[in-house]
Amino acid sequence: MDFGAVWKHPQCKLPPKIILKDTIYVTCVFVPLLQILYTGIVIYSPSLALNQVTGFQLWGSVVATGLVCTFYCTLGGLKAVIWTDVFQFIMMISGFLAVIIRTLIIKGGFGPIIEDARRGGRLRYWDFDPNPLKRHTFWTVVVGGTFTWLGIYGVNQSQVQRYVACKTRLHGKLSLYINLVGLWITLSSAVMCGLSMYSVYKDCDPWTAKYVSAPDQLMPYLVLEILGDYPGVPGLFVAGTYSGTLSTVSSSINALAAVTVEDLIRPYFTLSESKLQWINMGMNLFFGIVCLSMAAAASTMGALLQAALSIFGILGGPLLGIFSLGMLMPFGNAKGAFSGLVCGFSLVLWIGVGSHTYPPPSYRTLPLPLSTRGCRTINGTLAPQVTTSMPLSTTPRPGVQEYWYSLSYLYFSTLGTLITFFVGTLMSLATGGLKQEVDRKLLFGKEEFLDNFIYWKSKWVLLFEKVHPPKQVAPKEEMEESQEMEESPGM
After folding, report:
1. What is the pTM of this model?
2. DSSP letters along 184-238, please?
3. Which residue in 462, 480, 441, 340 sits closest to 13, CA to CA?
4. Per-residue confidence (pLDDT) for residue 18, from 0 to 100
5. Residue 387: what are its φ and ψ, rounded to 5°?
6. What's the rounded Cα separation, in Å, for the pair 335 and 110?
7. Which residue ranges make up each domain of the chain?
8. Of the ranges 15-19, 308-312, 382-386, 465-469, which one carries the lowest mean pLDDT score?
9. Does the 15-375+398-472 domain belong in CATH 1.20.1730.10?
10. How far, in Å, CA of 44 to CA of 292, rounded?
11. Which of 263, 335, 371, 452 has the fewest CB atoms nearer than 10 Å to its CB?
């Protein structure tokens, strides 16, 4: 299977042939913008870890990270990206396990860690408050997370080009199932590391005590404290941190180059494959430098995980909406798609910029208390006791800041998708979308949905036949011939 831009592959029942013929350039802007902004955050975050663990200059590590990713992505292409991802996943999990195992030894098992988290209010996973202004609830994580991850795995160029690079559709589906297991292991390990860190620092928060300069340096600080006496282990953690970064950055750079070559160069210039390959390498180098420069902007975004998910919501949500419109609505047209995309993006961008400029108050975000009563200064004396908690009084805020800008960042993708989809639907109906002829193969219907389960159904049938093999029945002609031979004389 060949690969290129996500909407170019003929086997993918995606909307451009229906509604994106005139809006292809809009998506050519959205996809690179999304990847560049996100990649800048990814390059910046492990540099904080390297700075904390080794003392290496922060921006020196940022530049080194970007150059390494750009180098092997430019020379090796997608094949190099995929193979390095395999080894980087192993290193990342090894770093997680080193922290978890050492903390279990220090605390005496899982029990004390879970009990500390429960007492500190870190296990609030049954909050069913439907208020969309609360930062983290069951509904924001499930509903908002569904749309966010659907955009990442459904229409993100760096992901989809991996699917269509597989040999068959079956291999693509199997790769997703394997990825599901790997993602579960990664997220579970990250959560356990977070709980372990809280158990160690429940009485002395290093960030509140000014031992670290950024919240994202807390985990490297923990590694130095509990694993610093084991030669090479802190380096293993740094290697694990960089593994996740190199995996993401290399995929993004390769995706950016693929979109540029397939959509902006190949259709308009008659070039040989060898020249296109050289241009693709040049695009990898160019976008590597651009993503590296965006790391400077990431340093001003505050919490990096929230910033990354917000970017996916602001840019990925409208993209998911426009693709959903094309796959689900046969009457979707270019005018409706463009109108929905502009409305969805403008609205979510307004909320995102507003929430960054006017952050939600603490009674919306519900920050959990942190303590420094167990901290000690350099000379061994107890540090001043500080306990952070949610303020009891609040100052009045304008209505837009109080409600509009306080929307949970996990709902950015949901809002962008729905606004784009519904505005695009209405505009398509109003501009004659019902009169157009559409190839049904480009739509996602009942048959396509059920096709996802045919593989497992066939496997169950084969397993059943293996356990209960059918009886072999001789054909009618063979039975009659055997009877005649038995009745003939001489037998």
Report:
1. 0.74
2. HHHHHHHHHHHHHHHHHHTT--TTTTTSSSSGGGHHHHHHHHHHTTSTTHHHHHH
3. 441
4. 42
5. -130, 115
6. 57
7. 15-375+398-472
8. 15-19
9. yes
10. 9
11. 452
